[in-house]
Amino acid sequence: DTAVSQTPKYLVTQMGNDKSIKCEQNLGHDTMYWYKQDSKKFLKIMFSYNNKELIINETVPNRFSPKSPDKAHLNLHINSLELGDSAVYFCASSQGGPRYEQYFGPGTRLTVT
Amino acid sequence: KNQVEQSPQSLIILEGKNCTLQCNYTVSPFSNLRWYKQDTGRGPVSLTIMTFSENTKSNGRYTATLDADTKQSSLHITASQLSDSASYICVVSDNAGNMLTFGGGTRLMVKP
Fold this sequence. Notes:
The structure holds 2 protein chains of 2 kinds. Chain A is mostly beta strands.
């Protein structure tokens, strides 16, 4: 009965590759997010989508492109991966926007070698 | 610039003891403040969420307080258990609702 799920849980890849992380929520929420947590454990919001429309786009390289096929899914595609992209990426969802309680997925640990 | 600072960065306590974690913020205008618990290798889980008019909110052995005048919040954990070992993250939302500012977290270790 997973509320917010992400795949894969672990991703190891080489510099220059393109990869995608998938996220799905079954809570019926209208807003989904992608966060990056670096090695110092700081969480930073990357993107926020409300009803399939982008509402937050923090300073993120344009190699990162979110795609929301429907309200329940928000995928993250990363082009030309760099060493600095290594981190844990969390998907989250909420009902009504960022000021409301967010439910986080289990995270995807990305390692770029 | 909006900032959220947490202290201490890390804390070790013995099982059964109480502890208090601090969060100071400069986010303005303020909408709400949340405390999250993040176990190692997992996503954050919400403990409490407080708006401007709320001074205190409890969730089991966790009690959060908020002083909107001094822009300070604390999370008090009573009778700590080994399962309380985790990072605790303070997050403040601005009044527009689109800006979240995260603290760096406090890493708590509870030892038997």
